[in-house]
Amino acid sequence: MKFGILILACALVACGDDSNSKSNNVIDVNNTNNAANNGSNNASNNTTNNTTNNTTNNTTNNTTNNTTNNANNTNNVVTADEVDPNCVDGQYREALPNPGADISAELASFSAADLPTFYDAVLSKRFPVGAWVVEGGLGNTQFDCVQTFSGNPSNADDAIGSLSTVVHECGHIYDFTLPNDGYGVTPELTISCSGGDTVARGGSTFERSRLRGDTYNSKRPGCDVSGGDCDFYAEVYLDGDPDDGTFDGGDQGFNSVLEETLQYVNSLATDYAFQDSIRGSVSAMDGILTFLWYIERYLLLARTEYPAAYTKLSTDPCWRNAILTVWGRAWIMLQAAEGNQSLGIDDQQLFELVRDPALLGEIQRLRDLEGC
User: Fold this and answer.
1) How far apart are CA 215 and CA 219, in angstroms?
2) HEC string for 61-125
3) In whole angstroms, what separates CA 347 from the centre of its chain?
4) How confident is the model at residue 107, as a pLDDT?
5) Taking residues 316-328, what's their average pLDDT?
6) Are 177 and 27 in contact (CB under 8 A)?
7) How far is 241 from 250, CA to CA, in rounded Å?
């Protein structure tokens, strides 16, 4: 199903129910900002401003084309232990952002009256994929993602501070215009699968909020039920009771989990590109690591308790390829960012959670089914 053109209220309530559109999916509008704000409250070395800115119809040919596009996509090779160089994830290619590119002229000529031009100019130099993402989001003329998520900056520094959020949210707006469960990865690569929402919403998967009942939740529970080191993304993305008949964002299915994962890769890539503007620390690595952890946990829960959902995600070549592709892309950025203290808050703990051998085994099962 296709996502419709959505408004801010869709962050909190279900939209329409047209079976021919994505209109019963919702944008997690403000979730990026909310999660980042919560993160700042849990990190003594982080400032509030920095963290805030922080098919069945598809054929095997689509999978083949995606792999071919990945190989041609540019030249960065990920060597992280978490990917397999002989499989889709390890064969993904994308150039790293260039944080050293000179943007002094663009900063000097900043105009608050023309933010899209400013963002395009600085992103084109440091993170071209991000420039493409924002352009794609702005192509949706019914929702101005730059105006909505930039925070109305009055100077270049404030505009750069909002850029990670702008790229993330414009990525959502762009993807919602794509067919089926569509994901715009790069200008060369778009993935379109189907049936990724919950059974109750016309798909084949289950509500993402059910992750709060799995065996791993206690390792990093939501901050609404735990103090100290806690998962401040859970109360934003895994909210609500999936059985109470009232819609919450957490009632969405696996398609939304992968969508958020893709956009948190974009968030990390953007903050990596503009790391010279960060004061203190931002939760860039925390966001993507949390969603990689959610993917692993979702696959495990599906395999052990929701066999129909697992069959859909693991044996449908489109979904299997999509998961491995986004997994590989994430580790390209994480490999570059790991150890950069300005790009993470609780990232060391999250790396350990994601690297749990049993959970990594869920990704290996997909590779095995892929024939790698």
Assistant:
1) 8
2) HHHHHHHHHHHHCCCCCCCCCCCCCCCCCCCCCCCCCCCCCCCHHHHHCCCHHHHHHHHHHHHHH
3) 16
4) 97
5) 98
6) no
7) 8
Q: What is the pLDDT of residues 118-144, one digit of tens each?
A: 999 999 999 999 999 999 999 998 899
Instruction: Give the C-alpha separation, 232 to 40, whole Å.
Output: 10
Handedness of CA 286, 290, 293, 295 (dihedral sign): negative
Beta-carbon count within 10 A of 235 CB: 19
Token duo for residue 195: 């049936």
What pLDDT score was predicted for residue 4? Answer: 30
pLDDT at 43: 38
> 79-112 b/e with 16+ CB inside 10 Å = b?
eeebbbeebbbbbbbbebbeeeeebeebbeebee
Highest mean pLDDT among 11-20, 64-73, 188-197: 188-197
Cα R_g (the chain), whole angstroms:
19
Q: What is the pTM of this model?
A: 0.84
* Interatomic CA distance for residues 83 and 360, integer angstroms: 10
